[in-house]
Amino acid sequence: MPNFSKLVDSFVATRAHTEALAAPLSAEDQQLQAMPSASPVKWHRAHTSWFFDTFVLAPRIGESLRPRWSVLFNSYYEAMGPRHARPERGLLSRPSTDEIGAYRKQVDEAVVELLARTDLERDHELAALVRLGVAHEQQHQELMLTDLLAAFARHPLAPVYRDLPPASRVEATGLHFVSHAGGIVRIGSDDEAPFSFDNEGPTHEVLLRPFALANRLVTVGEWRAFAEDDGYSTPSLWLSDGLDWVRENGIDSPAYLRRDGGQVSSYGLHGLRRAHDDEPVLHLSFYEADALATYLGARLPTEAEWEVMAEGLHDDAPRENLHPQPLRGQGLLGMFGVGHQWTRSSYEPYPGFRSAPGAIGEYNGKFMVNQLVLRGSSLFTPRGHSRPSYRNFWHPSTQFQASALRLARDE
């Protein structure tokens, strides 16, 4: 039975967190769009409100609260009508940030009122849509930060989003591998889960050969050794597409990292700083992660291997810093809350997967081609959003997301 109080609390807290993330930003900051694959903070605030307005409110109150805005803030839902071109979202100077704030408040009040007068024991569809909307907004909270970072990184004065304490100057735990015997395992989310996206199911069996995962993420120092050993110009380390991408784009580092002599500088939402050799390296493309894994005598894990090893683990990573800290301790470190980890698995449907009918069915299924799966969560992911079955996905050249590398090997 849906719990009214818990559902409302989750909705209200999520909506407030979005506004808290935007609060340090000026209207000019919120207008920035660094590239076609990113969006302005202002647009994220409006789009997440449009989602609740369109899928939760309009079917139940008879009309959208802002029907003319649908063309502006519809992302990719073909069934919901025309959309403003994604690469031109940064040109939408109107509505203003204040008008979007008023729209958010209106949506919040209308959703809470709707939930208060609905029998959620009978209207399970409404409860499910609100939970989906909350999870959807959490995804956009992460994108707000990664898209803002991509924009700020192009500013000559290296602006600071938030003043943060310095990184810990401690050594990372030594690299070793944790073994798994393999065999027939079950992965994916089932109907008993509190929440999962449709692409996380159905549960199904997978046959794994014996393998092992690294106990921690690959570090800046390990990446630096690769780069200093001409890793970016050694063809035997690279997939053909990856080597073409490196040569065509002059790639010699992950996004926001630069080598300066024997040191590495890092730009992040905290500003410009020196990167610690023992902190995890982030903003790797799939191509770089694969080449670096090969250089280190290992490989990328499959998503099934990663999920089986993550069973029973939870995201308890601190969120005080928006830059990675060296990983120390026992067991598998940094599975959540540091960096999404590339896998060698193509993003494709699980056996038995079917998209939901209607516009909501466009959420994940239609993107299941030409992308790779990442697992875990990052330091930008809001707490409570991640779980072992969660599947993120991006194109292999993507660097602007907080993507990391965990090594795997055959046993």
What does this structure look like?
By secondary structure, the chain is of the alpha+beta class. The protein is built from ten helices and twelve strands. The radius of gyration is 22 Å and the shape is globular. It has helices at 4-22, 27-30, 41-61, 70-73, 97-116, 124-152, 220-228, 240-249, 286-295, 303-310; strands spanning 177-180, 183-187, 204-208, 211-214, 257-260, 263-268, 271-274, 340-346, 372-375, 392-394, 403-404, 408-410. The strands form four sheets. The chain has a four-stranded mixed sheet. α1 packs parallel to α6 and α3 (41-61) runs antiparallel to α6.
Percent of residues in helices: 25-40%
- Care to count the β-strands? 12
N- to C-terminal distance: 45 Å
Q: Which regions contain 5 or more consecutive residues with pLDDT less than 50?
A: none
Could you report the average pLDDT, rounded to the nearest whole number? 95
* Residues in β-strands, percent: 5-15%
Q: Mind describing the biggest β-sheet?
A: 4 strands, mixed
The number of helical segments is: 10
Radius of gyration: 22 Å
So what's the overall shape?
A: globular
**SSE order:** HHHHHHEEEEHHEEEHHEEEEE
- The strand order across the widest sheet is 10-9-8-11
Query: Structural class, from helix and strand content?
Result: alpha+beta
